[in-house]
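Protein 1 of 2
SEQ + STRUCT:
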Amino acid sequence: MKATTRIAATFVAVALGIPSLALAEEAFQAEAGFSYSYLKSGPARQTTAGPEASFFFDKLPAVPKDYPLEQAQFVERIGSLSATFGRMTSDLGNTRTKSSMSGVSSEYRRPDTPMIAGAGVLSSYSGNQIDARLYQASIGAYVDKTTALALDGSRIMTSTKISSGGSTFSEFTDAFTSVGVSGQHLARLSSGDHVAFIAGISRSTHEQERAAPEKNRSAFLKATYYPTRMVGLKLGGSFDRGDDSLTAGKTVEAGAKMFLTPAFSLDLDFQRFYAKARGDSDNFITIRALVRF
């Protein structure tokens, strides 16, 4: 009951523009909110909307003195448990389907050890057409106060059913397995501003029934510039090359995150994927609002 009252009070504080509970206590231990995304891929359209939440295993400062607020978990080395849920609507031009997705992930970090470990699973279910499940795991360590390296692995498994008249007459599965290394670094500029970098390289294998495996290589680099502790401006890019024409291409992305108060933030992200095989592009937009308490 106390937690519910506290969350409600935080929302009221944000709406009225008065100091929030997170600011008053100068710490937070959880965040929750809502996200909406829109994907355009050729004639196909897909929207996803739903809640998400994270619980941190220790309290984090709501008003950090010498680094951006968004980087609190990374700098303070605090683990977390996160969950997400969404309802998806897909429009393929002549077919409209609805599906759902849900996921949970956990990350181990401790101030007294450099070790980092994480794992998560994300599932989507359409009822009778395409089901997918994503497994992720990583292990790494801090090599400096604001620098970390990790070994990452993921596996996506999809099951596609082709039906007619209520009967399934064909079903096939695909699997995408990826292994790579990544690094994260938060730099302080001479002006006092900050820049966060995330980069990585990986190799993926696409396994299909009755077909030879296809292998691709990819690399990415993302940077977030923080002119203030409350605002982050994001820019990044990646490329994917190899046998699998489904994923080969390049991606550019941009975005911004703004804390309207230390407890309330808004995110806007845009990605454009240039497909090498198709010669066209996919657009992906995400909007997210989160409250910390």
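Protein 2 of 2
SEQ + STRUCT:
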Amino acid sequence: MDLQCPNCRSTDLKKVSLAYQEGLQHVSTRTRLRGVVVGSDGPDVVVGRATTKGMQQTDISKALTPPKKWSYLKLLGWSLLGFLSLGWVVFYVNTVTNNSSSVFSLPLTVFAVLSACLFVSLCFLYWNHNSSTYPRQYARWDRSFICERCGTVSQQ
């Protein structure tokens, strides 16, 4: 069965996952430096080394990046940071306005309950994305082809 581009009717189609991989390059280089330097203290030898590692990616490869699962660790980290920083502000404002040092107060309790509800909601949102939305997006991405003539991405 010949696959055709829906835009230009070309048969020069390539799977999106292959085009994505072809646009990635992992780079690992090593550099050495040797030299002699003459200064006010006399001659000296300079020796150095460096290692560079990285990744290069073409624009087409960036555009064809597969969908990703959302990280629960990032959710936990950002939630903890937000809770602690905003909780400290609520605690400080409550302490200054009431001139008391009680830890359990109505605004702080309301903030803690609302923060917990928001965290549970976000956990549910992440779970829903990772268990139902992500697999559908990844399957659609895996079935897609890109036309090498006009650049149209289509599903076959």
